[in-house]
Amino acid sequence: MSIYERDYMRGRRGGSAAADFFANISAVKLLILINVAVFVLEAFVDRLYGAGSFLMLFDLSWDGLARGKVWTLLTYAFLHGNLWHIAFNMIALYFMGTPLEARLGWRRFLAVYFCGALGGALVWLGFSFGGGGGLVGASAAVMAVFACFCAFYPPVPITFLLFFVLPISAKPMTMLIVAAAIEVFGLLSTFAGYPSDIAYAAHLGGIAAGLLCARAISRGKFDFLDSISLKAFARKSEKYTKRASDYNFRVNISDSDALQKEVDRILDKIGERGFASLTDAERQTLAEARRRIDPNKP
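Predicted structure:
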């Protein structure tokens, strides 16, 4: 199969507008879109049927689970209490999730996200056993993304704005340790009788899930996800996202069948696992193919 016969290298023909939309959106942006849409829907339903009507169906609580609402183990992560709640979570998801998805690919990224949501739910349930109230928010899932990001980018200093004003630079693992310490302190303070609306236990569960996912991914435990083929995410979240029609050149490597076959294999690997999965030798092979495309480029 030649390069331009591949689904992710050729332009879409006759596709619907919806199909084109999902083919060109990353998992991070899709999650943000879903969270915002649910937030708007929540406000609309509450306006029609009264405050809390929507949350009662999808928030996580022991009471709800006792009534068979097992879906709330994940749906709670798409609910938010107010505008600041969703804004903070979505901003963090975008800035931490975008580079992480680029490195892991959409399959492993979504696995981290939903494992974080589930891990946060289970830890929160463990610490709130017998108590009332419910859990909402994507914070546990975002914490998992944050922890996994820190695990894969430990030596790279990051500059962020504390309180959106004061610039501070720190290594990701240092940031994670500080964040975890704050969450532990907050959890202990609630045990000491200082009530808080912040679900510290869920955040810690998300951090633990993110670190476990990072370890599992490094050991190849999530490789089975490569068999999943959802074209809605694959094009945008992998490194090679341009279509053949976007280029003004064509590959001409017919003089070397061996090189063409090797490039085909590497492109298959990129489509399945992402650009980060390539070895140095495979990257050099792509560079050689590129030089044949345009000898004037270094």
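Summary: Residues 255 and 292 are 11 Å apart (CA to CA).
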